[in-house]
Specification:
220 residues; 4-stranded mixed beta sheet; 3-stranded antiparallel beta sheet; binds zinc ion; alpha+beta; 2 domains; 42% helix; 17% strand; 9 strands; 60s Ribosomal Protein L30, Chain: A; Hypothetical Cytosolic Protein, Chain: A
Length: 220
């Protein structure tokens, strides 16, 4: 965790660098620095519609001190990239043993204090949700409950996942992306896990992941 502070070019307020998303300018075009490592000067923005709108209206131009170009689907690309980053983080966590899903496994991981973030599907069922939420509350672990079970499942190649636990070392970053996508209204849109957003997982999943991780600006 870095302690450094940056100013949002939307609302103008300072915040920790980790709470802001970074954009860079490449050949007059503003690009979302999804992995926070593109060279050059960056402009930072809170991932919410109000800050992003203001950045688009004037904040980026002021920050980069020049006319800027934005693609027509700038906002939806931005949100799509956050979702892509989230999917990768979830898949990587699963591979590294930092993620469990399903009621029994998550319950036992929580019991052993191995869960830093609890993710509950919006449609996980009231009694399941209540039980896990109470547990998370008691143990003071992060929780998020805004994602449909079919979408959560599709990220890991399953039909439906009602509850998922992520270890503490991966918890904050994933929690933030889940929250940011909520602020951007992403979970409210009509998410069809099979046909939309490319979250269906085909056979060559490894390859797809490699491709995604290896390619910086594949959509710009
Ligand atoms: Zn802001």
């Amino acid at each position: 965790m870095t302690e450094s502070v940056r100013k949002c070019v939307g609302c103008g307020k300072s915040d920790s660098r980790d709470a802001l998303e970074r954009f860079v300018m490449m050949e007059d075009t503003v690009i979302f620095d999804m992995r926070n490592k593109a060279p050059g000067r960056g402009a930072h923005v809170h991932a919410n519609p109000a800050c992003l709108d203001r950045a688009i209206q004037s904040g980026f131009a002021k920050s980069f001190r020049s006319k800027v170009q934005l693609k027509d689907d700038f906002s939806s690309q931005f949100v799509g990239s956050i979702f892509q980053r989230l999917k990768e983080a979830i898949r990587v966590s699963f591979r590294s043993g930092d993620l469990v899903f399903g009621g029994d496994l998550v319950a036992s991981a929580m019991k052993n204090n191995k869960v830093g973030l609890l993710v509950l599907a919006t449609d996980s069922g009231e009694s399941v949700a209540r039980k896990f939420e109470a547990n998370a509350d008691r143990k003071s672990i992060l929780s998020f409950g805004g994602i449909p079970g079919a979408v959560l499942g599709a990220v890991l190649g399953k039909d439906f996942i009602s509850v998922l636990g992520i270890s503490a070392n991966k918890a904050e970053r994933i929690h933030q992306d889940l929250e940011n996508l909520q602020k951007m209204g992403f979970w409210d849109t009509d998410l069809n896990p099979v046909s939309n957003m490319g979250i269906g997982i085909a056979n060559g999943e490894e390859q797809i992941l490699e491709e995604i991780v290896g390619r910086e600006y594949d959509r710009t």
